[in-house]
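Per-record layout

source: Photobacterium aquae
name: Hipothetical membrane protein
length: 368
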Amino acid sequence: MDKEIERRNSSIFVNNMVESAIRIGLLFVLVVWTYDIIKPFIIPVMWGAIIAVALMPLTTKLANMLGGKRGMAATLLALLGVAILIIPLIMVMGSVYDGIVNVTDILQGESVKIPGPTDKVAAIPLIGQKLYDVWALFAYNLEQAVVKFLPEIKSGVAAFAGMLGSGIATVVMFIISLLIAAGFMTHSETMTAAVDKIAVRVVGKNGEEWANLIAATVRSVLLGVVGVAFIQAVLIGAGFFVFRIPAAGVLTLLVFILAIAQLPALLVVLPVIIYVFSYMDTTPATIFTVWVILAGLSDNILKPMLMGRGVDIPMPVILIGAIGGMIAAGIIGLFVGAVVLALWYELFMHWVKMPQQPQNADKSQEAG
């Protein structure tokens, strides 16, 4: 009798395991198929959510000015964002096109004349003599210079073309994200209620508080990283345009990208300073140098002012999360990394503040 019950229980156990394995396998297949279907939309939707969270306070103020028309306010902000993306792109493309046309006209001319370097170039510490030799080779024997540096020229052109194509694709992706953000902002109350409900369901009673922390962290990173990068690029770009630096639009865009990546803008500025000193008089070159160096170092002042605003998280935690997240996952990692470290910081502080049961109480309970 006992063996029969044991065999029956064993059979039931095996059947349950097989049935569970089949269900888990089907669920896994469903998850994989679902991911493949929605994968092209994940990044635009994430960016749309980030933009919506960042612009929500401005949307609310604009909606109040428009008589409570939240949809119209969200649409206006999305169109403004599209214009902000497209106008610089048109300027950069125009600058690139003008440069290509000028180079083509020069190469199609009867003679190509490149001005030779001055003695100021050779006097530059460390790299002056080498730069002077290369410049002189292009100025006085262009054909030999092209043959000598042809592999570098080809790789540089290919890299620039790839960067330009990637930049255009990124702008298109951001335009789609802005439209998605407009939908999120229009239905913000419904979306907020759903997010809070899910957060409470997943985390518990602190879910709503953590959802607010995520939103505040995203706004903090947008101000402290992207906002500072934009201000820095505008300041340096103003110097480029005022002093008529060639390809000023492209250089300004490079400064903006480097600033977002938390790399020093001086990587772009220093070669331009060398170029300016090679053909300008000392006074305007010095004025330009002072301006762009101060603008390049402005993030040291702006970042502590803007990073961490509205968030009860130390600024270094958010900054480390943003930098590490970007290294791990690109631009989107700026926000994801900051949010993850902010949540871990909150978890750690919650654990630290938890009341600890006295050991004497434990011993008395054991004795009792």
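summary: Residues 2-65 form the longest helix (64 residues). The chain is about 85% helix and 0% strand.
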